[in-house]
Design brief:
The complex is a heterodimer of chains A (107) and B (116). Chain A is mostly beta strands and 107 residues long. Chain A has strands at 4-7, 10-13, 19-25, 33-38, 45-49, 53-54, 62-67, 70-75, 85-90, 97-98, 102-106. In chain A, the strands form two sheets. In chain A, strands 2, 4, 5, 6, 9, 10 and 11 form a seven-stranded mixed β-sheet that branches. Chain A has a four-stranded antiparallel β-sheet with strand order 1-3-8-7, with no helix packed on it. Chain A is globular. In chain B, the strands form two sheets. A six-stranded mixed β-sheet of chain B has the order 2-10-9-4-5-6, with no helix packed on it. In chain B, a hairpin with a 6-residue loop joins β4 (35-41) and β5. Classes of the chains: A mainly beta (107), B mainly beta (116). Chain A binds chain B through residues 1, 34, 36, 42-46, 49-50, 55, 87, 89, 91, 94-101, and chain B through 37, 46-49, 51-52, 60-64, 96, 98, 101-104, 106-109.
Chain lengths: 107, 116
């Protein structure tokens, strides 16, 4: 199985801050990576797919980059509705696997 | 707008079989252009992909669960199903259904508790 390691596991930030979350794959996954946002009691929401493609309807303050084994999700200017947990997911090979999550909390 | 809705018992006894259905609206399973997955999340923990099924019935399962998982699709009812046998407390989780390899559409999730 491909292991997905996210860091940090949590981050405290203020509205307007730039937030960076990283995801590392245990082997090369090219750009087969997605990012999700999950709020308490809700299903995850797809933000980014193909490592850098913005899902329709997702604000442009979210961006993704990377290829191979190292990936980054950036929130350029944190908004109140962005406080949530973020997960990466690899789609390169089975079983599909997720990172452990990064909780973005209010500072 | 495509919507997914999970349904099934919220309580299952240990050693029994968990059975869930995901009903698709706004899209046709038989269109053959999508994969349909099950994903679960224990309380306070991360996400685990259980497996997926294609319209033709072809499946891919997580090896960690493969011996206990069966997925099926019913195109006439536009739904797909999950069966997980020999459940234990470790199978207690919110179960989601979702579409495709990048999960662009999700159900709201259904909580399943394994307890006697």
């Amino acid at each position: 199985d491909i292991q997905m390691t996210q860091s940090p596991s949590s981050v405290s930030a203020s509205v307007g801050d730039r937030v960076t979350i990283t995801c590392r794959a245990s082997q090369d996954i090219s750009t087969w990576l997605a990012w999700y946002q999950q709020k308490p009691g809700k299903a995850p929401k797809l933000l980014i797919y193909g490592a850098s493609s913005l899902q329709s309807g997702v604000p442009s303050r979210f961006s993704g980059s990377g290829s191979g084994t190292d990936f980054t999700l950036i929130i350029s200017s944190l908004q109140p509705e962005d406080f949530a947990t973020y997960y990466c997911q690899q789609a390169n090979s089975f079983p599909l696997t997720f990172g452990g999550g990064t909780k973005v909390e209010i500072k | 707008q495509v919507q997914l809705q999970e349904s099934g018992p919220g309580l299952v006894k240990p050693s029994q079989t968990l059975s869930l259905t995901c009903t698709v609206s706004g899209d046709s399973i038989s269109s053959g252009s999508h994969y349909w997955s099950w994903i679960r999340q224990p309380a306070g923990k991360g996400l685990e992909w259980i497996g997926r099924i294609y319209t033709t019935g072809g499946t891919n399962y997580n090896p960690s669960l493969k011996s206990r998982v069966t997925m099926s699709v019913d195109t006439s009812k536009n739904h797909f199903s999950l069966k997980l046998s020999s459940v234990t407390a470790a199978d207690t989780a919110v179960y989601y259904c979702a579409r495709d390899i990048y999960f662009d559409v999700w159900g709201q999730g259904t909580m399943v508790t394994v307890s006697s």
